[in-house]
Design brief:
coiled coil; 17 helices; Helix Hairpins; Nucleotidyltransferase, domain 5; Transp_IS110-like_N; 5 strands; 57% helix; five-stranded mixed sheet; 3 domains; alpha/beta; Transposase_20
Amino acid sequence: MHGKAGPMIYAGIDIAKNDHVVGATDEHGRDASKPMKFANSAGGFDRCVAYLEGLAESKSDLMVGMEATGHYWLPLFCHLQNEGFSVVVINPIRTDAMRRFKGSSRVKTDMIDCVLIAETMRCGDFEPSRLGDESMMELRQLTRLHQELKESVANLKRQVITALDQVFPEYDSIFSDTFGESSKAFLKRCPTPEECLGIRADSLAGTLAKASHGKLGRKKADEIKSIAKGSCGMRMATSALSFQIKLLIDQIDFIERQAEEVEAKIREGIQEIEPLILTIPGIGHILGAQIVSEIGDIRRFHSAPAIVKYAGINPSVSQSGKFSSDDNHITKQGSPYLRRALYLAAMGQLKLKTPFYDYYAKKRADGKSHREALIAVSRKLVHVIYAVLSKQQPYDPNAAKSPELASRSE
């Protein structure tokens, strides 16, 4: 019993882009009201609030749940919380399990799914949800934006290389960094062998000298012209490929400038919110901000293994029930952003040869693959991160060497 005046009611909301559906069940699993569709709008939210207020004697007798479907759930979640409702977010995997248990059709039906969400809550298969304060949400938005910008740049660079492979296959031997300032200055001016040969050597030398701050000049210009003269690049559609490369380089420069602006805001944000994460070796401002913002309020998690599970780096269990943390694949059922950040943080530990490196070496000596050992380091790193954030104490290098910690993070 929940100890309230009236019977407990569980309301489930199936989330979509344009319309949502809300339905409810009581504490005995009986339908509490007919499901209702409402628009993803201010008016629709008001209809939802009116529906929910009619379900129970008081808001303390009502629990509202919704699936974390993309980003569409956030506005409604915030609205209902502001209205004083107790709202939780349900992992879609949980409702899928409930659907199988109930023997429902594999085809998703909004009117059925909202009740399945309610039933999932009634069975207690959920965890409390906290969005965190506004500054934490802003940091999360910034770190995700930064990651998207970096991925965009990487994609643009792949396109440049693809074009160069066609029109100027020898180009990767000219500069040590295809996307360094000198190389980009060259590509903006004459990305094809034909264009390069059409420019005077002293003019090209001037372009290189300016971009390299005097490190490159006539000698490099002559070298490039010699390579261009013997290029085996194709001679068809070179005008279009040249135009494409120039545009792509401009886009790379623009997005990289944007990424730098975002980085400045992230550095400022992590220093204000949780600078202690930066005391852990291998975790800089950007990575630290991503880890902290994706974890959110550390009070959401009762232990480090809970964060491991949230990140989806906990080992899966085979259908037979046999379990081995080293032999099984990770679940990948948690936050992909946090999982990626922890993986990168683990790689940083290896580069710096921190105490985690010995743990990695031990796993490799035990026959584990590089990836398996790195995931094991990620799990161990979570225990250190949890200790730093929950205790509000700087990183203790001795903790990373602790046998007790090693056994807990297996």
